[in-house]
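Appendix B. Chain record.
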Amino acid sequence: MTGAPGTRRRYAVIVVGSGISGLFVALEARRLGPVLVLTKGSIDDCNTRWAQGGIAAAVGPLDSPEQHLADTIAAGAGLVDEEAARILCYEAPARIRDLVRYGVSFDSLGGEVALGREAAHSRARVLHAGGDRTGAEIETALSAAAMDPAITILDHTLVTRLAVEEGEAHGVEAVHLQTGEREWYEGDAIVLGTGGAGQLFSHTTNPEVATGDGVALAFDAGAEIADIEFYQFHPTALRVPGLPTFLISEAVRGEGAVLRNLAGEAFMQRYHPLADLAPRDVVSRAIVREMRREGSDHVYLDCTGLKSVDLAARFPAIFAHCMEAGIDMRVDPIPVAPAAHYLMGGVRTDTWGRTTVARLYACGECACTGVHGANRLASNSLMETVVFGKRVVEHLAAGGGGAAPATPDRIPFPAPATAAPSHRELQAMMWECAGIERDGPGLERGLRTIAGWPARLAAVCTREEFERQQMTTVAALMLTAALRRTESRGGHYRSDYPERDDAHWRRRQVFIRA
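Structure tokens predicted for this chain:
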């Protein structure tokens, strides 16, 4: 950290982000020494608290990790890293026990844990807490457990740079947003747990903090970025004029709700044998096609036939939100449309969470373990954070060190010299050019748009300015990766190359800063 001013203190582990991945790592790592958690919002301002459906683990009597693995691989459209997926599925039950130890109370029925079923799962294996408030329940429990003398949490603190010397990460530069003070923090290890990048798009289920910061920070620091073209659009987000996007959990369809077009037709059986429980990419594209055919901006999710389900009790947050919008889901169909939801790609890691920069780790949505392939299996995301967060700390406890091996055929990519004039302009461009359905001319238009934006600021002064620059980096990576991949697979669909091409494209794209 040559030239770093006024370092305060050295920490065993510095964690960037306060969602489930960041807090879980902090709790597990406190036995290694002092831990610092830095988060640009408040401690609970993260994707985790919005996760409704639940967390997947093979804990039911009719289930097995092997079956969970088979479903994960099937959903991933040929690109799942099977070693990583096997680790996820076999270690999941133990991580559920860890969450219970940290105070998470999962819903039960008749003395047994209640298990829901979601799209592309062959068994009911999704645990939930507080009905549809699973993410919020986990975040609340972990936040309370993190009030520990060994863990220092600094909120409203924006990490603007990773300090790397001779291929090793040594610390972070951060700005305290409420005072403008800039500070450096040294750490024996840096762990990125910054979440996703849904704010790249006009319509998203993600909160305002999800701007891809961790991916851009790691890219700038020399780490590899993989699978960045694969973005999952959730099929069912509330679409009511004048109201913000709100996720309607897949678990609602798991209970038997049916998608209908404006004519009242249950259309999903025309698109996939699993109908309403088809993989998310299939359902999202089907909805887009129905909307286009009917000239509408939504379809309907019909829950009115679920007479045996107490919707207010099973889905309290969704039920309350719909009621506030004037929709009683017991008798009214819910207007829904797809929205950007989850980034399958990110900072490439090995199965211990190591990036290709020594002492820099990543876990959760900002990381790319390869476990999701081209299309994430529902409710594997929360489990991924704790499984690989645990492995990060296990690796550090065993002595840490080293970096993930570099990818032989990685693609050099220059960081964009420009930045979006505003969040809104970038979001509109990405929704149009790199949304649910893409094509070559649109992706090229997106890249030309970025090239025509103003030059980057030499010094970033505000969170908004920093986010625009980070979002522009991630957008340029995503557009480039999507343009290069001349096929359709999982969360990446190109109307000019609508078929999957295993002969040429059953491989990952990995980028490195040129």
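Further analysis of this model is presented in Appendix C.
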